[in-house]
Amino acid sequence: MIELWNYYRSGTSHRVRIALNLKGLDWQYRSLNLLASDHKQPAYLDINPQGLAPALVVDGEVFTQSPAILEYLEEAYPTPPLLPTDTAQRAKVRAMAMIIGCDIHPLNNLRVITQLKALTQTQEPPVDWIGRWISEGFAAIEALLARDPSRAIGCCFGDQPGLVECYLVPQVYAARRFGIELSSFPAICAIDAYCATLPAFQAAHPDLQPDTPQ
Ligand SMILES: N[C@@H](CCC(=O)N[C@@H](CS)C(=O)NCC(=O)O)C(=O)O
Prior knowledge:
Layout: E1 2-6, H1 11-22, E2 28-31, H2 42-47, E3 55-58, E4 61-64, H3 66-76, H4 87-103, H5 110-120, H6 127-146, H7 163-177, H8 186-195, H9 199-204
This protein binds glutathione.
């Protein structure tokens, strides 16, 4: 049995939902309300001592950290692949994904934003801060995409969505949620629009999860 402890609006959770769906796996939704601090309760800390979403439980074995979970899924369920076969291409695909995983998302995480609001004594989300990191990272991804004439329009690499899309689509969702301007990133928007037509991405969308507020 595959269970995913996650939250509808969490980008790291969204990544793993996409990957599980792309792999065609049967999995169970386990809900964590981050705003109600479910992730800091002893029951969840027994699963993930770091107290962060998501955690994947496969036949009782726990996996944490979404990049490691995605790599685990790729190795345990290789078909269909999320990564190209060529070693150099794999490194490039991973690098594009890590622009989001290492250099955008961690700066805009719930606990970082909460701390920033406390330090600056504001109630509103720091949209300039959030947009700064998204825009900088998306500009780099847009430039890398422009260098690859062989990729299909709507895909980051090759002609199928894979690892980068698992990171990119949730990050575009977050950017739109905070009203970040995306018109300078037409390739990214085209990839997001194409992915939105695919069932694996549709089923993973934050609007359609069991814990999505109605
Ligand atoms: N590097 C971790 C980050 C996990 C993470 O920060 N998850 C967020 C949700 S997107 C979370 O649980 N935030 C709760 C908090 O900041 O208190 C991963 O990729 O799994």
